[in-house]
Amino acid sequence: MFHSPVSGVPIRRLFSTTSRTLSHDNPLGLPKSGTPPTFRSRRGMPEKRKIRDVKKVVAVSSAKGGVGKSTVAVNLALSFARRGIRTGLLDADIFGPSVPTLLNLSGEPRLDENNCLVPLTNYGLKSMSMGYLLPQTQADSTGEVPMDTTPISWRGLMVTKAMHQLLHSVSWGPLDVLIMDLPPGTGDVQLTINQEIVIDGSVIVTTPQDIALRDAVRGFGMFKRMEVPVLGMVRNMAYFACPNCGHETKIFSHGDGDHCHGEESGVLAQCKRLGVDFLGDIPLDAKVCEDADRGMPTVVAEESVERSARRQAFLNIAEQVAHKIGLDWK
Ligand SMILES: Nc1ncnc2c1ncn2[C@@H]1O[C@H](COP(=O)(O)OP(=O)(O)OP(=O)(O)O)[C@@H](O)[C@H]1O
Ligand SMILES: [Mg+2]
């Protein structure tokens, strides 16, 4: 007989006990509607409020992982910052913070006189990330700093507490806009953020494939339920432009071609169906990835490159977002 590696209880007994005691309409007893659980208002519950000294908050999100949320968030934030718009970038990904790498920043933030964390700045963009608060790995004998192997394995309560601090204990100074790079999913972190602060708009990032788009559409549903305006959808890795001949290839199925999903499918069709603006395409481009990895995102890396299509793609999206939230785009 098999035994549970954790409890040592025979597996069969575990299953039979479970099936006897379940009385819910599905195995986990979760609500079928997908509606976030509502909490009775009681003393001590956080009240939704604006982040101090921050005029607008924009969340960059997608329920799907790895579609380019952080890449879009940092390039969006830098597009604003490089135009003189006072901008901050908050990395809300507690388990996999990307902002320190993307902005080539590290080191422990200092505390100001009110015990608030002072953001770290690069390229004129202020930023805060869980990654700055973790112990730093030391350089080895070759002078290289090895990648950190320490996992961030926290339970819900710790995550909520960390999130709470990142939301309320950062001294941003006056900001016109704070861009929030959200982790994948539609769970704890997203709900906590929405419970605690006013989000002025969200940008949903997807890639062309059906499998990513389905999750992006779920992300749309989450913001709708939370009554956060969805500013639009971005299609990242939309096509590959050959660096030699310039020919554009749609690497991933767009739901409108040979893969036969028909007109009801694809990012554009979903935007139309949901009544969401399509903000634009970002090409799949090795340079975008390279720039991100070396901590100088494309918007900055190609500032002096005339007619950089990849930089322009980010700028076009930033301009639309700026107009939608009432920022002055000069
Ligand atoms: N347009 C692009 N062209 C080439 N590479 C890209 C592009 N967009 C993102 N990438 C690369 O894809 C990887 C994933 O991107 P990113 O970290 O921004 O995704 P994410 O959605 O934030 O992921 P996670 O869900 O883990 O937070 C990174 O290596 C990034 O450099
Ligand atoms: Mg990310």
What does this protein look like?
- With 330 residues, the protein is an alpha/beta fold.
- The chain has one domain (54-133, 152-324): 3-Layer(aba) Sandwich (Rossmann fold), CATH 3.40.50.
- 32% of the residues lie in helices and 15% in strands.
- The protein is built from eleven helices and ten strands.
- It has helices spanning 11-21, 69-81, 99-102, 130-133, 156-168, 188-196, 210-225, 267-274, 286-293, 298-301, 309-324; strands spanning 54-61, 87-91, 120-122, 125-129, 175-181, 201-206, 230-235, 240-241, 248-249, 278-281.
- The strands form two sheets. Strands 3-4-2-5-1-6-7-10 form an eight-stranded mixed beta sheet, sandwiched between helices. A two-stranded antiparallel ribbon has the order 8-9.
- A hairpin with a 6-residue loop joins strand 8 and strand 9 (248-249).
- Helix 2 packs across helix 11 (309-324) and helix 5 (156-168) runs parallel beside helix 6.
- The longest helix is centred in the middle third of the chain and has 16 residues, at 210-225.
- The radius of gyration is 22 Å and the shape is globular.
- The N and C termini lie far apart (71 Å).
- Mean pLDDT is 84; it is low at 1-32, 36-42 and 257-263.
- Adenosine-5'-triphosphate is lined by residues 65-71, 93, 96, 98, 183-184, 236-237, 282, 284-285, 288-289, 292.
- GO terms for molecular function: 4 iron, 4 sulfur cluster binding; ATP binding; ATP-dependent FeS chaperone activity; metal ion binding.
- Keywords: ATP-binding, Iron, Iron-sulfur, Metal-binding, Nucleotide-binding.
- Belongs to the Mrp/NBP35 ATP-binding proteins family.
- One of its GO terms (biological process) is iron-sulfur cluster assembly.
- One of its GO terms (cellular component) is mitochondrion.
